[in-house]
Specification:
The chain has 321 residues and is of the alpha/beta class. The protein has two domains: 111 residues, NAD(P)-binding Rossmann-like Domain (Rossmann fold), CATH 3.40.50; 180 residues, Rossmann fold (3-Layer(aba) Sandwich). Helices cover 35% and strands 14% of the residues. α7 links the parallel β6 and β7. The chain starts with a strand and ends in a 16-residue tail after the last helix. It binds D-malate. The site of D-malate (MLT) has 8 residues, from loops.
């Protein structure tokens, strides 16, 4: 029986080495079959996932030899961390490895929305040349509202400052005298005030019960009609039905969604809207970030299976079972 299960698409040199040195079941679609995953885990000592495998309490109960769940990414919302901790299983993750890539994508989406780049590209390759229709707005002098001023939020601020944007931030965990705010000359605002002040709002919060549907009808109503919304965090942070009506009714000017409530999403009315950009959760998908992420997860799995502590853990450094 395999010692390590990989239930999503995770490829790279470090994974090749891991597969060479251990008995690995590499099954990138296994996340779609929870019963098969559970059966595969009966003897396994490690599980490596991205964000699509639901690692539930039932799964921990059915995996008595499991020592580590290694998350190739930063969000651990797909893992029942409390159940992992009470089962004595390490949850490792990669908190910093893809932060630059996500921040760069957020900035890319900001530019793409402000200048209608995807829509204008589609127009040009269809033979069009209507420059008036794709008139954009500058980012210089605009206010960027960053919701979640952690690592990715701050990297986004740094890049936006280079465009001459003013920064406001909302973050329930940050004090108003936090050095990070001074560094970016950023004002800390309550979320409602940030939404009213910002020309562009970018979301960088983890998914928790408090952030589920954080952007809902009421909060969209507080935003400027000209505002742009960018979500590269988690789909569930935005109430998609509210956003859809907000966009259709031009309550806000545009939105870019890299993440969706269900991934991959079913076809929806978003697909036909001209003021929306949709991506298939690409934030972390750069060669550089993926190399760092996969090196880190393979390193921590190797360490834990060799009886040593994980270096980047979310709950406990060593298994307690
Ligand atoms: C992350 O949480 O690291 C990114 O959203 C990428 C992913 O979920 O795989």
């Amino acid at each position: 029986m395999p010692e390590i299960i990989v239930s999503e698409n995770i490829i790279g040199a470090a994974m090749d080495r891991l597969r060479h040195e251990h008995d690995v079941l590499y099954s990138p679609h296994l996340w779609q079959s929870p019963d098969e995953l559970q059966a595969a885990l009966v003897e396994a000592r490690a599980l490596i996932v991205r964000n699509q495998t639901k690692v539930t309490a039932e799964l921990f109960a059915a995996a008595p030899h499991l020592k580590i769940v290694a998350r190739a990414g930063v969000g651990v919302d797909n893992i029942d961390v409390a159940a992992a901790t009470s089962a004595g299983v390490v949850v490792s993750y990669t908190p910093a490895a893809n932060a630059v890539s996500v921040a760069e994508l957020a900035v890319g989406l900001m530019l793409a929305l402000a200048r209608h780049i995807p829509q204008a590209h589609a127009h040009a390759i269809a033979g069009g040349w209507n420059r008036q229709r794709y008139m954009g707005t500058e980012l210089a002098g605009r206010t960027l509202g960053i919701v979640g001023f952690g690592r990715i939020g701050q990297l986004t601020a740094e890049r936006a400052q280079a465009f001459g944007m003013k920064i406001v931030a909302a973050d329930a965990l940050l004090a108003s005298d936090a050095p990070a705010l001074a560094k970016f000359d950023a004002r800390l605002l309550p979320l409602e005030e940030l939404l009213a002040a910002a020309d562009v709002v970018t979301l960088h919060v983890p998914l928790t019960p408090d952030t589920n549907n954080l952007i809902n009808t009421d909060r969209l109503a507080r935003m400027k009609h000209s505002a742009l919304l960018i979500n590269t965090s988690r789909g569930e942070v935005v109430d998609e039905a509210s956003l859809l009506s907000g966009l259709k009714d031009h309550k806000i000017a545009g939105a870019a969604l890299d993440v969706r409530r269900t991934e991959p999403p079913a076809p929806s009315e978003f697909d036909a809207l001209q003021n929306v950009i949709l991506l298939p959760h690409l934030g972390a998908f750069t060669f550089e970030a993926q190399e760092r992420v996969i090196d880190a997860v393979c390193r921590d799995v190797t360490l834990v299976l060799a009886g040593q502590p994980a270096l980047e853990y979310f709950n406990i450094p060593e298994p307690r079972r």
